[in-house]
Predict the 3D structure of the following.
Amino acid sequence: MYERKLGDVVLRVEGISLSFGAMRVLNNITFDVRQGEIRSIIGPNGAGKSSMLNVINGVYHPQQGTITYRGETRDQMKVHHAAEQGIARTFQNIALFKGMSTLDNIMTGRNLKIKSNMLQQAIYWGKAQREEIEHRQKVEQIIDFLEIQAIRKTPVGKLPYGMQKRVELGRALAAEPDLLLLDEPMAGMNVEEKEDMCRFVLDINDEFGTTIVLIEHDMGVVMDISDRVVVLDYGVQLADGPPDEVRKNQAVIDAYLGVSN
Amino acid sequence: MLYREAGEFKATYQADQAILTIRQDRWFMWAMLVVAFLVIPLVSSEYWLGTIMLPFLILALAALGLNVLTGYAGQLSLGTGGFMATGAFAAYKLATAFPGLHIIAVILMSGTVTAGVGILFGIPSLRIKGFYLAVATLASQFFLIWMFNKFGWFTNYSSSGVISAPPMSVFGDNYVTGPYATAEAKYLFTLTLVVLFALLTKNLVRSNIGREWMAVRDMDIAAEIIGIKMLPTKLKAFAYSSFLCGIAGALWAFIYTGSVEPQAFDVNRSFQVLFMIIIGGLGSVMGAFLGAAFIVLLPIFLSNAPHWFGLNIPVDIISHIEAMVFGGLIIFFLIVEPHGLARLWQLLKEKLRLWPFPY
Amino acid sequence: MRIEKSVIYIFLSTLFLMVAIPWAVGQLSSDIFFEWPFFFEVAIGGLLAGVMYSLVALGFVLIFKASGVFNFAQGAMVLFSALTLVGLNEIGLPMWLAIIVTLGVMLLLAIVIERVVLRSLVNQEHIILFMATIGIAYFLDGFGQTIWGSEVKILDLGIPSSPGFYFDGKILINDFDLVAALIAGILVLSLALFFQYTRIGRALRAVADDHQAALSVGIPLKHIWVIVWAVAGIVALVAGIMWGSKLGVQFSLALIALKALPVLILGGFTSVPGAIIGGLIIGAGEKLAEVFVAPLIGGGIEDWFAYMLALAFLVFRPQGLFGEKIIERV
């Protein structure tokens, strides 16, 4: 791959350990993410990858370790703080608002940017309406980008799985995030859909300069688009480095082949 | 053929976001408003205006309030009656303590007081969800009614126990409460207020706050993750909902019954309003009206129906049969269309769009 | 059964407060009369009433555990079963036969409910099912009273209802309450064991978690539901007999259900031991508050005290003492 211009470290997790009761989910995980990078986290099922993302944006609080984002170090991230600081994400088991349409779901992603208060919204004429239209324009740009114009008014509960994943990505993009966490964005898709999704991820990184942390099982995709890869297995960090290095790492190969642990 | 969107292109987002986007819908709405404001007062009897339209409108307002809280924000509440009572008593205390206050001011202020009470009883919703929350709202219901019954301060220490609403007018001699008020005046006043609040509510639910409420309803964890704060969002739902319910209570006491009594707002009232939004359709402004119409008209229909068949059934058995029919209808609706009359209405419109084609 | 530490703390604090507050109030205020034998009398009376609450709450828990449905009609079932029993008795059936026939009626009711309501609403959201049970409640209320009439009926079981002196004649306890508590206790215990240790009990718990999943592993949903509603019907009948003998069989019996709700919040909707302990706490708490605290505020707090008490518990444990914490995974 050509040399990419990557910025400074924007996120650093150090010594993260997470347990649920007696079950140890993450064990002393340390890695960093650079500005503009596409960073992948890979590993067999149950390795703790989703939990790692949950720690980064504050859904889970680790028992040990620190998270440094944009220069601030803390023991745990608060969910609301993460959203305000420009972290957005998608989920393995889609977390869309099933009772709303595609358009409305993506509009909810703009909620932090909408400033009108309740009274103004009740009256609607004037500031609230202007804001709605302004944000609607932004959202329509995202809808164009993701090629989901046809389903914008459909309640998301009725959409097929692949489409729902796209809408979820749209909602994350609506927040104009600096750091985008994607949890298996291509799961359950056929080749064409995967190629589309890949294209979106690369475009997002390219056009908007968004830093991306990606969990994915498709090795072809991961090796192709990632700048660096972290490998987890049973909560333990096996490797960390560019795709080519990781691919040759014996511990990683053993983990994937199921050599006994 | 008659009813379609084909050929209607929206050139601006503004047009697309309008409340009614299909031309025929707009005509229908204007027609309804004309009928409501002009035709009905002219052709209806006092009985219709006073005993059917008034409770319908006022309960529709309460249903609107509850629908915001339960249908849009997903917080199941069985405390509607208590909040209506709060509005009624607040209005009474305000009207008697400050006799010069205009009725609109009294109504808005009593709504605001109720909003405050609603926020207070909404605080548990931050920790408690679902059925547990519903039962917790029953606590507010029972407590509020007990409080209004117990403490004489609320009734200005009335010895007879019957407190009537003082006569108040909108302007000049146009009384809307008390013995001088005409049925038409009461009807038009209530109608104006209810239509206004329906509009405000519709605006709210299609704005950011409406989406925040629905997000909390659908998946609150995800809502938090994208930046929606639970505390303000839920409390705003309780506040606005109680605001509407309080106003409904004030209207009920002042304009409909003319007296302020806690029994009118007991736990049965809470259930009644809940049925309205279930049958009408959760999460729908139109649903509040459809449900209210259904619930208000049904008992009248049931008590008169036997006469049409020439049967003479004693009154108490009629009320039991009413309960049976009522229960049966609820079950029927839930099986056939769990999303209520509003959804049936939508389906009808969709069929109309295609008519005369089958698909 | 593992009990969390916080539950034990809350429970002990409650016990402490239930003794300390009446005592303190008794020392400080001349309006309140406090003496230990009297205190125990009130407390025991409250506990006995609490067992009866538990009985009604148990019907809720059974159905909720097994079908995830919050059965608002439980109170109506209590009333309906009692009405049927008394009605049959009045038209000439001897009591023992009337009881058997009523049990049959409740079984029939369970079958009808399953067939008409539950089957049509399989896999709908819980709130829809809840509202359907409200419909059933209204229907049963109307139906029962249409058939059997709405005057108050006397239900005489031959149990003495005058108080007897116990503990060296110092404490007055109602004999009837004792017998009722005993019967209720036996019923509750057997049901708890049934749920925990039998195959059917396990199947019930599976169904409560996920209808579709239970179906896919071959659990006969329809049979399970009929069983559960029938058992709930039996519980309703026993509750109806107990309460009916005490208060007379009348419409307000259905409102007893509303009293069971605070018990459920306190104990947790899915817990049989929770229903028991919750009932005891609410029963005792209510009586103690009414006697020792209420005179200070003007009396009559029975309407809402149980709810406020339950609400206070919820603040510390939103899922009730023994309820299941709902964990959502993202």
Observations:
- The longest strand of chain C covers residues 163-166.
